[in-house]
Amino acid sequence: MMNSLTLACLPQNNPNYAITITPKNCFRNSAPCFSNSIPIKTTKTNFINARIIPCKCTTTLSSSSSSAAASTSNPNWVKRDEGFGVDERVFVVVNFYLFVFIEDPEDEVSKHLEFLQGRDIHGRIYINEQGINAQYSGPSEDTLAYASWIKQDERFKDILVQISPPTHKHAFPRLKLRYKPSLLEGGVSHLPLVDSSMRAMPLTPSVWREKLSNLNKDVILLDVRNGYEWDVGHFRGAQRPNVDCFRSTSFGLSESEDIASDPLANVDKENTEILMYCTGGIRCDVYSTILRQKGYKNLYTLKGGISHYLECEGPAEWIGNLFVFDSRLSLPPSLVNPDLKTNESIKHEVDVNTVFAKCYICGSQVSELRHRNCANLDCNLLFLCCSSCMNDLRGCCTVKCTSADRLRPVLPAPGEPLRCLEYWTAVIHWERPNGKVET
């Protein structure tokens, strides 16, 4: 008989429970109480039950990482030392990218796979002829060993490695390390990205801050992200981008010169300063190359993106949180750099950070700058939601979605869906005992 297996704990704001699942055919030989179970049906297996049990652990358990994760339940164990300045016992998220010519990317992939054998790393690492783009998580001993190994290569010695604050578990469900024709969504392999002269001039965070403090009508500030990212945080003076994927970004690309929604319409391409920013810098490098081909001259990007800026400068000129594309979803500035001094000016910035975001459904102020996915699996819309609408619509984005056939269960943690289910490859149904879908 197969024993129950604790898969993952609930989010940090509810650390006292864990999700335990047991194959349903094992229940014949056991007599536990499953009054708090959530029946779950998959397309590949029989029914299983997800049982909520008391738990003191705040880590994710897996065959390869349970011992490492168990030692990282206290995120305050971080030490600032030499090298990357992170205690090897904690989990961290690492990001880096570099546009550089790689003659044999398939062979490069093989080398990286060989190095990572036996290391507890999850994430997305893509390599092609134009370079590398990596976002991954794991125990810092493994994640930083990989970053150090990368920088030993002459081609990658100047790569900017960004380390996010410690976490109690992996931020990605699995490792995907492979050759990818385009390092960024939307297809960019045709662009001369390896040619640094075709990209915008990178500005250090301190210079960027100085420019933002003196913005005028002759300078244009572009947020080269998605609209939903802007909704939880952005620089003052940046217009909300009306796109939900990078390939839809079209600043300065419209055939007509009088498009009202385009901040680059009718600008002087020769003399207008254009400041561009994104999360980590890669989207700005790509988009500045596109604009350069269109004749724009004075292009500037934020080196290392928002994450590097918040680490160096704190929340000055910034409003809100930083949206990230992993299970954390949203990071307040205080988490990006916990070592920042909490002086009065920073406290004021934090106060401002909490009063601008609105619920997508009712328009009221949200108490948590964190998106959720619609509980309707066939919708899966990423949206901001207040606690009232979350409860009324059971985690869905519309009334219509509440009657969908396939719904995620929403547990009683504030503003948090059962996120571990999103990582299961099976198609999940939440059903009542009578077989009807819970709405």
TrEMBL record:
Pfam families: Rhodanese (PF00581), Rhodanese_C (PF12368), UPF0176_N (PF17773). Signal peptide: none annotated. SMART domains: RHOD. Residues 215-318 form the Rhodanese domain. Transmembrane segments: none annotated. SUPFAM superfamilies: Rhodanese/Cell cycle control phosphatase. InterPro entries: Rhodanese-like_dom, Rhodanese-like_dom_sf, Rhodanese_C, TrhO, TRHO_N. This is Rhodanese domain-containing protein. It comes from Mikania micrantha.
